Amino acid sequence: MDTEQVRERYRIEREKRLRGDGLAQFKELKGDYAAFDIDPYVEPGFEREPVIEETDAVIVGAGFGGMLTAVNLQRKGIENFRIVEKGGDFGGTWYWNRYPGCMCDVESYTYMPLLEETGYMPTEKYASAPEIFAHCQRIGRHFDLYPHALFQTEIADATWDDDTDRWTVTTSRGDQLRTRFFITAGGILHKAKLPGIPGIEDFAGTAFHTSRWDYGFTGGSPTEPMDQLKGKRVGIIGTGATAIQAVPQLARAGAEVFVFQRTPSAVGVRNNGPTDEDWYATLEPGWQDERMRNFTQAVTGEQPDIDLVGDGWTDVLWVNTQMGETDEERAELEQVDFEVMERLRQRVSATVKDPATAEQLKPWYGKHCKRVCFHDDYLPSFNEPNVHLVDTDGRGVQQITEHAVVVDGDEYPVDLLIFASGFEVTTSLIQRLGFDPVGRDGLALSERWADGAHTLHGILTAEFPNLMVISTVQAGFGTNFVHFLSESSSHVARLVATCMEQGVASIEATAEAEDEWLMTLFGVAMAMAPYSASCTPGYYNGEGQVTDAGARNVTYPGSLLHYVEFLHEWMDAGDFPGAHVVYRE
Fold first, then answer.
1. Cα separation of 319 and 446, whole Å?
2. How confident is residue 122, by pLDDT bands cut at 50, 70 and 90?
3. Same domain, 406 and 474
């Protein structure tokens, strides 16, 4: 296909999938859907006495973001903090994601944090979810974080008191925590979402979201075969990074597996393997930070002298094809993008035996439109006689009945229905946190951010003193999300420690600095806007829905390393430029 033909195919496939409801097409796990949010990994009936105390910091979230924040506070000599977490243990995403076949899609050596500090060597280049969850627990033990944690607990309310320069945080367990600094590290991959398919609540069989996997029904465990699916018809809705890993496991266990697809994923070679212990033993102190930085450089087009990781990511994303400055550059980069995606489409043809199924599995969009997946068993699964691709031609599932999934008028009876529909990523921060902080003079964050986010670096916000946010909203991002969390949590801990050392009673952004930061974000985003506008809908572009709030909630669109430079320059300035600071007398 020539360039014009590819562009036209991309346009056609995009327009098939455009919907007027955007993010509203998904349902929150509450109300009629609350049953999908029950934690299957804890014993019911947990009770404890409320905690009433004064702390220096309260951290919301016990995933990597919350844990890294706690560890960085400890490095600054701050030990008086609390961690509040909905789940029953450390882990965040890796607490919830226990579905069969789940593993990290970024290599373990750059993704799993604090390997040097804990002395742990990952067993594989791409570690499995159980191994990552166990590492989260290892971090909790190594840094003695468990005594600080309040698990199975949610924030009910958080209110700033100007008279005492404190946040009062109350929880679902009756806790009352008064704290100088309130740090939200709620993450982007913890709040599950469901597709708003008519009749979803009418299904009479067993149904669950992949982050609430019911091994009581399927049998097995994350490390054992699902022996109770013999003779069962299984349907799975979604073909993103989760389904890519779960479908091969279901194919080995179920009598029939129906994979309902709206948009196919681009699937490259994974090529996982055991860690070379001899190589690992040669690594010098500081190797992990260097490797994180090298990987980020490689996948954002900065092309380091040596590619330390050398995997599918650095092969596919080695040049950022969104960032051409001239028409000639953009044309050249567009051609690179086309060639990479064509290579991934040809892999489908070379792997899937049935030509019609292979065509339906081919991705027709740019390589930066959706997160590329890597797996060696997903595509071959469609060569198995018990696995059926049900392609919806971009429209999605039409309806769910008491016993079946309906696509284009055809019913597909299933005993088990699995929603591989992912987590909320680009919804409002307040919605994802599950509570609405109240700042100065009773102003709720939802009111201040009614038209979208207002922040300095995505971390400080005016009218909300001593609130520090670790999130992708107006902040950085990267293929290796843990690199972002490492840098962001380090910055927040440094800011807290500096404020405590200098006797700062409160710190917040000024409205002027927030506007300047937004202009910085928009200035970088302008180069990427045409590319994003041409993309098929997905969580990268807010499901293709353009709103004022969505525009303000933009993630820093340049390299994570460039974003980090902003943070370092701001802290190194020494006088908190763009912040309103009140010192204690």
1. 38
2. very high
3. no
Sole residue written with tokens 């951010």: 449
Predicted TM-score (pTM) of the model is: 0.95
Tell how strand 256-261 and strand 387-391 pair up: parallel
Last residue of a domain, one of 419, 454, 474: 419
* Distance between CA atoms of residues 291 and 289, nearest Å: 5
Neighbour-count burial of 121, counting CB atoms closer than 10 A to its CB (0-12 exposed, 13-18 middle, 19+ buried) = middle
In a domain, 91, yes or no: yes
Residues recorded for the chain: 585
Residue 433 confidence (pLDDT) above 90: no
Q: For residue 235, give the H/E element and its range.
A: strand 233-237
pLDDT digits (tens, 9 = 90+) for 149-191: 999 999 999 999 999 999 999 999 999 999 999 999 986 767 7
Question: Which one-letter amino acid corresponds to residue 146?
Answer: Y
Q: Among positive and negative, which fits the CA dihedral 89, 93, 99, 105? A: negative
Give me the sign of the Cα torsion angle 486, 56, 427, 133. positive
Mean pLDDT within 105-119: 97
Q: Is residue 579 helix, strand or coil?
A: strand
Please give the DSSP secondary-structure letter assigned to residue 554: P
Do 560 and 297 touch, CB atoms closer than 8 A?
Answer: no
* pLDDT the model gives residue 243: 96
Q: Which two tokens stand for residue 60?
A: 């919301």
pLDDT of 87 above 80 = yes
Confidence (pLDDT) at 323: 67
What pLDDT score was predicted for residue 187?
Answer: 67
Considering the domain boundaries, does residue 75 fall inside one? yes
State whether residue 381 is helix, strand or coil: helix
For residues 160 and 252, state if they share a domain.
Answer: no
Q: In angstroms, rounded to a whole number, what is the distance separating the alpha carbons of residues 247 and 249?
A: 5
Residue 130 domain-assigned (yes or no): yes
245's tokens: 């890993």
Domain that holds residue 465: 52-191+425-583
Question: If you ran DSSP here, which 8-state letter would residue 178 be given?
Answer: E
Give the three-class secondary structure for 93: helix
Work out the end-to-end distance of the chain between its first and last CA atoms, rounded to an integer number of angstroms: 71
Phi-psi label, residue 323: left if phi above 0, alpha if psi -120 to 50, beta otherwise: alpha
Beta strands in 395-534 (DSSP E): 399-400, 404-407, 410-413, 416-419, 467-469, 504-509
Q: Which residue has 């970088």 as its token pair?
A: 524
**Cβ–Cβ under 8 Å, residues 337 and 366:** yes
CATH number at residue 489: 3.50.50.60
Q: Of 403, 419, 435, which residue is a domain's last? A: 419
| Helix, strand, coil share (%) of the chain residues, nearest 5 | 40, 20, 45
Q: Using N-to-C axis directions, what is the helix angle for 481-501 and 64-75, rounded to 10°?
A: 40
